[in-house]
Amino acid sequence: MQYPKFLEKGNIIGITAPSQGVGDDIESFEKSLHTLKKEGYQIKETKSVRNKGMASASGKIRAQEFDSLITEKNVKIIMCASGGDFLVEMLPFVNWQHIKENPKWIMGYSDPTYLLYIITTKLDIATIYGCNAGSFDQTNLHECLKNNLKILSGNIVRQDSFSYYQKDWLENSDGYHLTEKVYWETINKEVDITGRIIGGCLDCLKDLIGTSYDYTKEFIEKYKKDGIIWYFDIFEPSAEVVYRTLFQMREAGWFKYIKGIIVGRVAFPKHFNENFTYQEALKRMFPELPIIFNADIGHIPPKMTIINGSIAHITCKNGKGAIIQHL
């Protein structure tokens, strides 16, 4: 696994919009940039970052703008501006060879999963499922955001489960509204596992199964001695859809060397059969596997920073958990 160079003070952070642009959230985005500059970093944006619409530009233009940051030697890390729904449109135009020749950290979450997952599984370059560029818009940064910046600078901190989380989906607010008690739920057994971690937004991962961008089997074969830990961020699929997605992944060979699963809080939970929950979907598919549900991963803050391709040691007991990652 290739781990790019970490950020140093004065380095340039490149920001591009492989999915949506920041659109109407300019004020929040500017706050985030102010935070990053205050931390000692410079910023370079590509042209489409502030665009509105379902996508920041055509797929070809988005790929070209991303490539311009990949090949710009002075840019040390690339952050995705936002999530969205249509990053897939740029995949046919991505210059994978340029990424291989110019490895650097690429970070985002949600729709950027497509890009991060392919880069790690196809090119064997670690990527970061953490924050999009507009996430640092708080006057007083939450611990999870501080951890994210520490990790970007090479301080791979231990991340412990937080005390409270934000129940509702809120935007344009200065700080999280933490009202609900965090409880990491273990399914089947207590969790104490170590393995190579990979995953992302399940809504996106399901679209890659069996496509020309699916290098999962090659990746897990390469790291079968480590064993694979999967993490999933579920945005909106119902419990039934999650179960069928896991079935498809299993039948496609994705879970051959699996050691455990960690799943974040679901952003928009729903199920059509009141007796069939997300927990039931996981237990029905993996009746003996160590599984954590409702972890601090994904869309509902606070959230942990996951390094795709790293070795992760994950523990969970009595509702509390921790992730320690090694490069």
Share of helical residues: 25-40%
How many domains make up the coordinates? 2
Classified by CATH, the class of the largest domain is Alpha Beta
Shape: globular
| CATH fold node name of the largest domain | Glucose Oxidase, domain 1
Strand line-up in the sheet with most strands? 6-16-15-10-11-12-13-9
**Coarse structural class:** alpha/beta
Poorly predicted runs = none
CATH superfamily annotation of the largest domain: LD-carboxypeptidase A C-terminal domain-like
The mean pLDDT is 96
End-to-end C-alpha gap: 8 Å
The run of helices and strands is EHEHEHEHEHEEEEEHHEHEHEEEE
Largest sheet: 8 strands, mixed
Number of strands: 16
Summed up, what is this model?
By secondary structure, the protein is α/β, with parallel strands linked by helices. The chain has helices at 26-38, 59-70, 96-101, 113-123, 143-152, 202-208, 216-222, 239-251, 278-285; strands at residues 12-16, 42-45, 75-80, 105-108, 127-129, 159-160, 164-166, 178-181, 185-187, 191-201, 228-233, 258-264, 291-295, 306-308, 311-317, 320-326.
